[in-house]
TrEMBL record:
The lineage of its organism: unclassified sequences, metagenomes, ecological metagenomes. InterPro entries: Glyco_trans_2-like (IPR001173), Glycosyltransferase_2 (IPR050256), Nucleotide-diphossugar_trans (IPR029044). This is Unannotated protein. SUPFAM superfamilies: Nucleotide-diphospho-sugar transferases. It holds the Pfam family Glycos_transf_2. It comes from freshwater metagenome.
Length: 253
């Protein structure tokens, strides 16, 4: 099974080289067939040159300039349209996510589960240096999502997750332009009938560069996509569920 890793990166010159190097080294060590796609859109620092230089040395690393408008969601979607693996992981460029956890994700997917979801808030996980205000908002939002969907998973909002290729096909069309894509993917995967396994992961705050997530700009967009998936789940009579599950499309008249 080949794994693609999609890394959106905007102005990450301080960490992108190390991110790509550590991910590549860890996957190669495990003998995992891999491709790393760094998706840039409008970086004004040395991110593009840095990644192009790495890609010139390593055919398993791809520099992708997003063909869409700028934004986190569009950048990830550009990577999801381009990847060639049997599975894909979305990972951050700021060294917050741990390559060891990527290997764990790979093993989960390889065992036949559709999605591998990490949690930073269960036994065995670790979180370093999370800004306290963001952490409070994070816990409240994840609690709300958990109440709405009753899925028992407490870290829906974290982008670092992995999916088998069929899942990415079944969650189309994707609607989110921004960071709200991080909840659209797992929630749609779940309500459309895909299996998932939750595993503890490590997360640490970035040491270089600056955070691009503005809670103020994202609040209503998160609410929009959460409610969208919630209503799809409860009102669409299973029309969007994975095809082999026997949806109402099978009914002929
Ligand atoms: N291509 C691209 N990547 C982005 C954009 N916004 C954020 N990112 C990347 O998405 C990841 C998460 O962003 P980050 O600022 O660390 O968010 P935070 O950890 O929630 O504060 C990082 O790898 C960023 O470089 C964007 O507009 N375009
Ligand atoms: Mg970050």
């Amino acid at each position: 099974m080949k794994l693609s890793v999609v890394i959106p990166a905007r102005n990450e010159e301080g960490s992108i080289a190390e991110t790509v190097a550590t991910v590549a080294a860890r996957l190669d060590e495990e003998g995992i067939d891999r491709e790393i796609i760094v998706v840039d859109d409008g970086s004004t620092d040395a991110t593009a040159e840095t990644v192009k230089a790495i890609a010139a040395q390593d055919p398993g690393v791809i520099y992708l300039r997003s063909p869409f408008r700028n934004g986190f969601g569009f950048a990830v979607r550009a990577g999801l349209e381009r990847f060639s693996g049997d599975a894909v992981a979305v990972m951050m460029a700021d060294l917050s996510d741990d390559p060891d956890d990527l290997v764990t994700y790979y093993r989960i997917l390889d065992s036949g589960v559709d999605c591998a979801f990490g949690s930073r808030f269960i036994k065995g996980s670790s979180v370093e240096d999370y800004p306290w205000f963001k952490l409070v908002i994070n816990r409240v939002v994840n609690f709300g999502i958990r109440v709405l969907f009753a899925h028992g998973y407490n870290d829906t909002t974290n982008a670092f997750k992995a999916y088998r290729r069929e899942v990415i096909e079944n969650v189309q069309p994707l609607l989110s332009h921004h960071f709200n894509l991080t909840v659209e993917l797992p929630l749609k995967a779940i309500v459309r009938g895909h299996s998932y396994e939750v595993t503890p992961i490590r997360w640490r705050n970035r040491k270089a560069g600056s955070s691009k997530l503005s809670l103020q700009e994202m609040g209503s967009r998160y609410l929009f996509i959460v409610l969208y998936v919630f209503f799809e789940h409860h009102l669409s009579r299973g029309d969007y569920r994975r095809p082999d599950e026997g949806s109402s499309d099978d009914i002929r008249n």
